[in-house]
Amino acid sequence: MNHVLVTGGAGFIGANFVRLVSAQRPDWTVTVLDKLTYAGRRDNLAGLDARLVVGDICDAELVDELVREADAVVHFAAESHNDNSLRDPSPFLQTNVLGTFTLLEAVRRHDKRLHHISTDEVYGDLSLDDPARFTETTAYNPSSPYSATKAGSDHLVRAWARSFGVRATISTCSNNYGPYQHVEKFIPRQITNVLAGLTPKLYGTGEQVRDWIHVDDHNEAVLLILEQGRIGETYVIGADNDHVNNKRVIELICELMGAGDYEHVADRPGHDQRYAMDSTKLREELGWVPKYTDTDMRAGLEQTIAWYRDNEAWWRPVKDATERAYAERGQ
Ligand code: NAD
Ligand code: TDX
């Protein structure tokens, strides 16, 4: 494998993946296909030796040509924000379902290896007092338009693998945080609120639990699965942070940044309560070990806070519009 096509490689996790590949597999050629929606940015790839093709994964002709040139495809491109999917689900259907279908048809035609990036949210949620964790065999039960379209795309990948022999793997990962994450998401929103002199905003009571993972740990797992994963398999990715609720995360951010109080704002409709991942298969089969393992996320949050402090020019231009959109919804 020496030429990888990375869809959505100008977004948060995709750009961090390209960065990781550039450092760890310097002999690989990387092509990024990205539409540069509000979430994708050319400057996320600054300084990297990757070719950026600006285009849509729903464009069958373009996708066919790029897939033909590559040895493998890592598919990150998606509409990714739950709150946006509650306002207008239609781009989620287009990109997450039709875009994945378009990619699968090209991968099938050219017999290329595919790794599909999915999410813990396809499994639905657990109640707060349920100690269970999601595994590769947990039944799908998505709650939001976002997670329903991600579940749909996973079903397509499995069907193409079984019906047409597409050489695919899938990973379902929990909530990521780290550098280059859009300020619409929970952790960067609160960090940049503090930096901008605004009050951090907690939805509802903040009892919800997300199994947070640093983006580098997620991407190390993706690279491992791409190179060593068993074809046709799904791997759950999670770093055992399912004891930290949103309230604790916001309090920790305030503490680490020396900020005052935070405020409770309108809750998200249909808010998933708890996600928890059991990544035993990935750890035992492929030997994956996360680097950020302290039980209170302190090291990862400190690194992330430092990045937003040092990169105000990156987030400042999109901060006001993001906050205005939240304010319109009482959040
Ligand atoms: P993001 O929103 O930051 O980036 C998505 C990227 O896809 C952007 O660069 C955007 O321009 C691009 N894109 C969107 N529609 C496109 C289209 N039609 N054609 C080409 N490019 C398009 O998202 P992210 O947080 O980096 O998530 C990446 C992937 O990881 C997604 O598939 C998401 O479902 C999955 N995931 C995310 C998380 C998380 O916590 N962020 C956790 C688990 C899984
Ligand atoms: O301002 C906020 N205040 C708040 O309390 C925001 C933006 C969020 N929240 C809460 C809602 C969630 O319980 O924080 C939690 C995390 O919210 P998001 O960052 O929006 O993430 P989530 O909805 O959990 O989904 C994320 O993880 C799974 C990613 O956005 C998805 O792409 C991924 O699939």
TrEMBL record:
Domain NAD(P)-binding residues, every copy = 5-294
Q: What class of enzyme is it?
A: lyase
Keywords, comma-separated and alphabetical:
Lyase, NAD
Report the InterPro entries cross-referenced here.
dTDP_Gluc_deHydtase (IPR005888), NAD(P)-bd_dom (IPR016040), NAD(P)-bd_dom_sf (IPR036291)
GO molecular function terms listed in the Swiss-Prot or TrEMBL record: dTDP-glucose 4,6-dehydratase activity
Catalytic activity, per the record? dTDP-alpha-D-glucose = dTDP-4-dehydro-6-deoxy-alpha-D-glucose + H2O
Question: Which Pfam families does the UniProt record give?
Answer: GDP_Man_Dehyd
Instruction: Give the protein family.
Output: Belongs to the NAD(P)-dependent epimerase/dehydratase family. dTDP-glucose dehydratase subfamily.
Say yes or no: keyword Iron present: no
Q: So where does this one cross the membrane?
A: none
Give the protein's recorded name.
dTDP-glucose 4,6-dehydratase
Look up the EC number in the record and give it: 4.2.1.46
Name the GO terms of the biological process aspect: nucleotide-sugar metabolic process
Could you say which cofactors this protein requires? NAD(+)
Q: Which domain of life is it from?
A: Bacteria
